[in-house]
Design brief:
Blueprint lengths: L10 H13 L4 H14 L3 H14 L26 H10 L7 E4 L2 H9 L3 E5 L4 H8 L9 E3 L2 H9 L2
Parallel strand pairs: 1-2, 2-3
Helix pairs in contact: 1-2
Bound molecules: zinc ion.
Zinc ion (ZN) binds next to loops.
Length: 161
C-alpha cells in the first residue's frame, strides 16, 4: 500500500497533475499512487548499467566509461544525439581518434552522431534496430556503414576491418 499526500505540491504542479489524472479517468490520489508504483518497479539507471556491465564483462570485454545525456530535447544541449558532445567528451577523456572509431547502435540517431564526429556506424538489428531500418532507412541522409544482427556480430565486423 502506498500512501500519498498532496499537501506540499505547488499549485501549478497540482493543477497539471489533476488535469492528467482527469484525462486518465482517475482521481488525483489514484493517479499519484500509480506514478509511485510505476517508479518503484523501474530499475534505476545504476541498476541497468550494472547489469549491462556484468554481461559485457562476462564475455571478456571491458567498459571504460559510460556517458548519458540527462537533458531533454528542448534543452538543445550538445550531448543529446545526434549531437556528438558525448563522443567528443569520451575522445578527450580516453585519447580516442573518432575518425578511426565505430559507433554501434540500434537507432539512426546513434549512427548520425558518429557520422557527425567522423566515425563509422553499425546498426544492430536488436532493440529498435530492425524496426528503424525497415521503416526509415530509405529516408536516411547516410546509410549505416554496416548492419549487424547483434552486438557480437558488430564487434566481429569491426575487428576484421
Ligand atoms: Zn545533453
Amino acid at each position: 500500500m502506498v500512501a500519498v499526500t498532496v499537501r506540499d505540491i505547488p499549485d501549478d504542479v497540482r493543477d497539471e497533475l489533476a488535469a492528467r489524472a482527469a484525462r486518465a479517468g482517475k482521481s488525483l490520489q489514484e493517479y499519484l499512487r500509480g506514478l509511485l508504483v510505476d517508479a518503484a518497479d523501474k530499475p534505476t539507471v545504476d541498476e541497468v548499467l550494472a547489469r549491462a556491465r556484468a554481461r559485457v564483462t562476462a564475455t571478456g570485454a571491458r567498459i571504460d566509461a559510460v556517458y548519458f545525456c540527462p537533458h531533454k530535447t528542448e534543452d538543445a544541449c550538445e550531448c543529446r544525439k545526434p549531437n556528438p558532445g558525448l563522443l567528443e567528451r569520451a575522445a578527450r577523456e580516453h585519447a580516442l581518434d573518432l575518425t578511426a572509431s565505430w559507433v554501434v547502435g540500434d537507432r539512426y540517431a546513434d549512427l548520425e552522431m558518429g557520422h557527425v564526429a567522423g566515425s563509422r556506424g553499425i546498426l544492430v538489428m536488436t532493440g529498435y534496430g530492425r524496426g528503424e531500418y525497415e521503416l526509415h532507412h530509405s529516408k536516411w541522409r547516410r546509410q549505416p556503414d554496416a548492419l549487424a544482427t547483434n552486438l557480437t556480430e558488430a564487434v566481429r565486423r569491426i575487428l576484421h576491418d
